[in-house]
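Form 12-C: Joint structure prediction
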Amino acid sequence: MTLLAILVRLKLKQQPGRLQVLLETIVGAFDSLCKSTLGERGRTYLPFIGSLFIFVWLSNIIGIIPGLEEPTRDANTPIGLMAVSLLTAHISSIRLRGFKEYIKEYFEPGLRIRGVWLPNVFLAPLNVIGECGKAISMSFRLFGNIFGGGVIIVVVSSLVSFVGLPPFLHLFLGLFVGTVQAMVFSILALTYTAVATS
Amino acid sequence: MADISISGGDIVRAVAYLGSAISVGVAAVGAALGEGFIACKAIEGMVRRPELQGLLTRTMLLGMAVTETTSIYGLVVALLLIFVAGK
Amino acid sequence: MAGQEITTLVNAMTFMGAGIAMGFGAVGAGAGEGLTAALAVKGMARQPRVQGELLRTMLLGQALTESPSIFALMVALMMIFSGEKAATLSQAAAMIAAGVSVGFSAICSGVGTGLVSATACRSIARQPEVGGRISGIMLLGQAVDTSPSVFGFIIALLLIIQPQEIDSLPRAAALLGAGVAMSIGTLGSGLAIGWIASRACTFVGYRPAVAGLVTRTMLLGGAIAETLGIFSFVVALLLLSTT
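Section 2 - Result
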């Protein structure tokens, strides 16, 4: 990825080449996404979300090149990515809103009795479980899509003697699903951060 | 009844076949309903604005393709059950 | 029962469980994704100038709706390719329970999340200026709606991974009960959270000024609707830890 960035930097011209336009489009799109979701403050997260997307995207797509396997196929990669994204969201929320507010969040919704806010003890463990649910769904969505796609390609290839089908399927699943899932992952990371810091 | 001896392996294969039927059959229900609905709305749209038929057809096909993927998973599991489990 | 018969039963239930998992797991997602694409197409007919945004929203919504069935796929694959299993009645019960757990919990999660993205597409077509806000709420709502199927997924994983050595009828019934609890308990939550989030998407289009309030209320209502699914989850966990 670094190589790619350096390559584009060196080739910056007034008349942008195709690669540069592509990257500029991606960066621009994520810039506006971050700004619309998080406000002006959102721009600080741009590098993180942008690189998250590009990393996940490239990891998912690499499978198209024969011989290379996607890193996201292994269960550990998506879990690691999820850990990083969620840690960012939680740490940002603590930094921007203070530790007390952060803990209070888990006791939402509280009861308001004559202006005094009572923490709702019942919902605290449920909220925590909900957060864990979000974490698990994020990582396994990515993992399942890529890994499942790989398995399906293997199964279909071994069952179908018609030559044209497996490469077509491989292309569809690899490029399309890989791109969409990368987008989903990074946008969700962004949205969770936004909710945590609002 | 005639003297039929059913071995354990037979039962496993029988159940595997049944499971395969459930997998692909039930999965198809959802996708079929979904795709039917897509086509309905596409037709409604084209009736309203016939000049958009190119766009609507493209989108309809794309939406149907994505909707189909889940029932393809059902198909794959069904095939696996027939060939792998049915040994 | 004789040892050979139990092994047969275990293997049979494994494959049946895989079939149930994938079959029912795919229904909800299919219907939900179809609903999304349908309303997206209709939206494009209504407002062709937002076709780009509608297409993106549709694909994004569909991808999120697909997650419950991906969980089901993984469970089904794990069950088909699992190796040596304990030859006990409990193991057989565990396998079928796993299939039921992940399969049925994916139905309503799928339909619910599909409902959210469908109404989001419709609102974007109606009020294209508020597209960004609507997408944001759609994503949040869909993320919350995936939770019921995550619970079903976790229970299924726990059922599959642990070799069930304890061979007793109560244990088998407990495992079966865990699967049933998880499956039926999430039916309601999946639909409810989807309904809440889809209303949120619709109405934030009408009055974008109150988007913050709508979001908070949606998350609040969604959390409470989710608690019922969490109760099932907790009961399932308790059943799993009995002896």
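Section 3 - Comments
Chain A has a mean pLDDT of 69. Chain A has one domain: 47-197.
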